[in-house]
Amino acid sequence: MANTNDPISDFLTRIRNAQIAHHSKVVMPGSKMRLGMAQILQRAGYVATAEFRNEGPQGVVELELRYDDADEPMITSLTRVSRPSRRVYVGVSEIPDVLNGLGIAILSTSKGLLTDKEARAAKVGGEVLCEIY
């Protein structure tokens, strides 16, 4: 598979491209970060399943995408907030509220990967990785 310097942007781009092509599944190289983000998307209801399989040298993460009744993707926007060249860190009081609570922000915190709501409840800040709605 392709070598990438920013695995989070690669993760988001693979999902975005699969939805444009109306694929039912996305398979990407595995990592703890990608699996954690995939599980958050599953808990939020944006993807049907997110699983890790031991295939190849590092395993793969497979997502089953969800579409609504009009065959439109459940995910409208995937935006990378913190980049390798510009990290965005926030305290608990500055955690963004994506689309007035209708979307989610994924944060990397000292307690692991959390959504914006989970981070507020745990009273921890961290690096804002992406916003999804």
UniProtKB/TrEMBL annotation:
Pfam families attached to this UniProt entry: Ribosomal_S8
Top-rank taxon: Bacteria
GO cellular component terms, semicolon-separated: cytoplasm; ribonucleoprotein complex; ribosome
GO molecular function: rRNA binding; structural constituent of ribosome
UniProt KW keywords: Ribonucleoprotein, Ribosomal protein, RNA-binding, rRNA-binding
Gene Ontology BP terms: translation
Keyword tRNA-binding: no
Purpose: One of the primary rRNA binding proteins, it binds directly to 16S rRNA central domain where it helps coordinate assembly of the platform of the 30S subunit.
Family per record: Belongs to the universal ribosomal protein uS8 family.
Assembly behavior: Part of the 30S ribosomal subunit. Contacts proteins S5 and S12.
UniProt-listed HAMAP family: Ribosomal_uS8_B
Name of the protein described by the UniProt record: Small ribosomal subunit protein uS8
Species in which this protein is naturally found: Bradymonas sediminis
Lineage, broadest ranks: Bacteria, Deltaproteobacteria, Bradymonadales, Bradymonadaceae, Bradymonas
